TrEMBL record, chain A:
Protein's recorded name: Spermidine/putrescine transport system permease protein
Subcellular location: Cell membrane
Keywords: Cell membrane, Membrane, Transmembrane, Transmembrane helix, Transport
Stored PANTHER family: INNER MEMBRANE ABC TRANSPORTER PERMEASE PROTEIN YDCU-RELATED, INNER MEMBRANE ABC TRANSPORTER PERMEASE PROTEIN YDCU-RELATED-RELATED
Top-level taxon in the UniProt lineage: Bacteria
GO CC terms of this entry: plasma membrane
UniProtKB/TrEMBL annotation, chain B:
Organism: Micromonospora haikouensis
Residue stretches making up the ABC transporter domain: 18-246
The keyword Transmembrane helix belongs to this UniProt entry's keyword annotation: no
PROSITE patterns: ABC_TRANSPORTER_1, ABC_TRANSPORTER_2
Protein name: Spermidine/putrescine transport system ATP-binding protein
Keyword annotations of the record: ATP-binding, Cell membrane, Membrane, Nucleotide-binding, Translocase, Transport
């Protein structure tokens, strides 16, 4: 997140060799350094993306056995939206609710670790990251156990009458949203922590000295200064959460399926490649639109 | 040393005086501020002077509300503000680090305090304040685009615009280079005279305290050692610490045997001297006989000492030419080194190193200070920057 300006020190080194003539190897060096990454991106991102774009315009009547023809079938898009708009909308709804929950938990957490934790700072950071040491799938399966009908959590909630005697958590939207919140929380907390850690407490003192109440100090100083971390964190949380299908698959039912589940089944179960490709592009476009509007509203000149 | 005031405390404090009453702050077992009592009259320019760690910044932070006193009161007029939150106090601070808000431009930084108090139309006031600190065209810049001196002036404007009853300045000139610092000292003094607000200025720079403040309080180890007008403190210090913190002094270990007439006779290193009773902080027991280096004059023989002056003999061991003056070290017969400053006025020649000299002074310029029993001579040696050399 931070750009560290390192001034190279050449003490103890013999005098540098005379600079090579202009136009020599040194001018090409940056491009040579770019090459491996660029080749990788081209091969495994640009080409498949182009392939996917083409697939989304295949004749929907084709199949794997009969082969596909590129017929510029733009109708695939409205057809896909018509068939799966509930899942598309649900993706944004669940990811959005999870983001709000994540912010309510993650901001105070990041603030406490950055400003108040003192010598416990590193330990707490490890605790935030520790779940990532196990696989995404295993973590979500663990949630399945926690939320199960005969688990302790459901039992407790039934006892205090927050759930009816037959109420359940697993296989409900609540479970899916909780799973999303949990799984993506570290991506929100870490960038926020980085921003808040650099926050100079003397600025908060100055705000208090200049008649700002604690609430005003947060709104006028803390929040604006943590904006870069907040934006990075929300994007890192929201974008993968919207496209996620594991949580809906393991913690929900087909009634909670998100767009990721539909794309998954289009490619791997129904083998409807044109529709899967069209839905993938729709999801991408929708996320880009949401992110664009968000960045414009959040007003960070550094990102756009 | 507690309960002192800058002016007489015989009357009840008028509306705006700032009074610290038995103010104490402890951090664990460390006492940063120890039972401090102080009255700062409304509209005065008051300097808290001390070395780092003497408790001066803690005192300031307790007035600002950034630190809770362990005990005692901070009275503004008749109101005890010691337990008020900082944002509820009619007090503003110019921070040592300036603490300008990096995400706001200069205009919004200066307008911050007014807006937090719900004042909507701030334009005229902000522009007037920016003009006062000579930054009228800088409203739309960010703090990072300004030089240190400019940032310092923004910090001043941001605090002053609120018209606080007391303005606190926490070593605000510390980060500036010497020339800019002198310029800002004059500027601050001008602005203080113009707005008439009480300024409480914390500094470790004795020259800064002396040039700017009406009243200086010298702090040491959480207590006030001496308080008064700069000239009074300099000419007649109350303790050995003050005598060598504010300028420097030659302090000879001596014994006093009580006043005799209008004088106090003392014995130091076998010789007899005397000091007017009005310049003796103590009149019997172990004392320091003090003489400022610029009040110590060198001649080559005892018969050239003016009538009424007292003297010691010695050998010049070092002579440093510093432009406006020459600073001599004179080793006495018993081995202590005295410091003497001679103005380079063109009258009288320079004394070579190794010459035998007689160092004499007018007893009316000497003073007697309490001395811990057993303590030897306290002489400061040569300083880089003598007080008063440039004034």
């Amino acid at each position: 997140m931070t750009a560290l300006a390192h001034v190279p020190t050449s003490t103890g080194q013999p005098a540098p060799p005379p600079p090579p003539p202009r136009g020599g190897r040194h001018r090409l060096l940056p491009y040579l350094l770019l090459l491996p990454g660029a080749a990788w991106l081209l091969l495994f991102f640009a080409v498949p993306l182009f392939q996917l774009a083409a697939a989304s315009l295949y004749d929907p009547a084709g199949s794997l056995s009969t082969g596909y023809a590129l017929t510029w079938a733009f109708g695939n898009y409205p057809d896909a939206v018509q068939a799966y708009w509930p899942q598309l909308g649900r993706s944004f709804l669940y990811a959005g609710i999870a983001l709000v929950l994540g912010l309510l938990m993650g901001y105070p957490l990041a603030y406490a670790i950055a400003q108040k934790a003192g010598r416990w700072k590193n330990l707490l950071l490890v605790c935030v990251v520790a779940p990532m040491f196990t696989s995404f799938l295993v973590r979500t399966l663990a949630w399945k156990t926690i939320l199960s009908d005969n688990g302790w959590l459901v039992g407790l909630l039934r006892d205090v009458h927050l759930l009816g005697p037959d109420g359940r958590l697993l296989a409900t939207p609540v479970a899916v949203v909780l799973g999303l919140t949990y799984n993506f929380l570290p991506f929100l907390v870490l960038p926020l922590y980085a921003s808040l850690e650099r926050l100079d407490y003397r600025l908060l003192e100055a705000a208090g000295d200049l008649y700002a109440s604690p609430v005003q100090t947060f709104r006028r100083v803390t929040l604006p200064l943590s904006m870069p971390g907040l934006i990075a964190g929300t994007l890192l949380f929201f974008i993968p959460a919207t496209g996620d299908y594991i949580n809906a698959e393991l913690l929900g039912t087909p009634n909670e399926y998100m767009i990721g589940n539909v794309i998954d089944s289009a490619f791997l179960v129904r083998l409807d490649y044109p529709q899967g490709a069209a839905l993938s592009f729709l999801l991408m476009a929708a996320i880009l639109a949401v992110v664009f509007v968000y960045l414009r509203r959040a007003g960070t000149e550094e990102v756009l | 040393m507690t309960g002192m005031s800058a002016k007489t405390t015989g009357h009840d404090a008028p509306a705006g005086d700032l009074r610290l009453v038995n103010l104490t702050k402890r951090f664990g077992i460390f006492t940063a501020v120890d039972d401090l009592g102080l009255t700062i009259p409304q509209g005065s320019f008051f300097a808290l002077l001390g070395a780092s760690g003497c408790g001066k910044t803690t005192t300031l932070r307790m007035i600002a509300g950034l630190e809770q006193p362990t005990s005692g009161q901070v009275l503004l007029g008749d109101r005890d503000i010691a337990r008020l939150r900082p944002y509820k106090r009619p007090v503003n601070t110019v921070f040592q680090s300036y603490a300008l808000f990096p995400h706001l431009d200069i205009f919004d930084n200066v307008a911050f305090g007014l807006r937090r108090r719900g004042i909507r139309s701030v334009d005229a006031e902000v522009n007037r304040m920016l003009a006062l600190v000579q930054l009228a065209d800088f409203g739309h810049r960010r703090p990072a685009q300004l030089s240190g001196g400019q940032q310092q002036r923004v910090a001043l404007a941001r605090a002053l615009i609120n018209r606080p009853q007391v303005l606190l300045l926490d070593e605000p000139l510390g980060a500036l280079d010497l020339k800019l610092r002198r310029q800002m000292q004059i500027e601050l003094k001008r602005i203080q005279t113009e707005v008439g607000i009480t300024f409480v200025h914390v500094t470790h720079d004795q020259e800064e305290a002396m040039t700017m403040a009406d009243t200086v309080a010298v702090m040491n180890a959480g207590r006030i050692e001496q308080l008064g007008a700069p000239a009074d403190i300099y000419e007649y210090p109350a303790t050995a610490f003050v005598a060598n913190f504010l300028g420097q002094s030659n302090l000879l270990a001596a014994e006093a045997a009580g006043p005799a007439g209008s004088d106090v006779p003392v014995t130091a290193h076998g010789a007899r001297y005397s000091v007017p009773a009005g310049r003796a902080r103590v009149a019997s027991g172990p004392v320091y006989l003090g003489v400022r280096p610029e009040k110590l004059h060198l001649v080559d023989a005892a018969d050239r000492v003016p009538a009424g002056h007292q003297y010691v003999t010695g050998v010049v061991t070092d002579a440093s030419y510093v432009g406006v003056s020459t600073q001599y070290l004179v080793r006495t017969g018993w081995g202590s080194e005295l410091t003497a400053f001679a103005a380079n006025s063109g009258l009288g020649g320079r004394v070579p190193v190794g010459a035998s000299v007689v160092a004499h002074w007018d007893p009316r310029h000497a003073f007697l200070l309490p001395r811990p029993p057993g303590a030897d001579d306290a002489t400061a040696g040569l300083l880089d920057e003598p007080v008063g050399a440039s004034s």
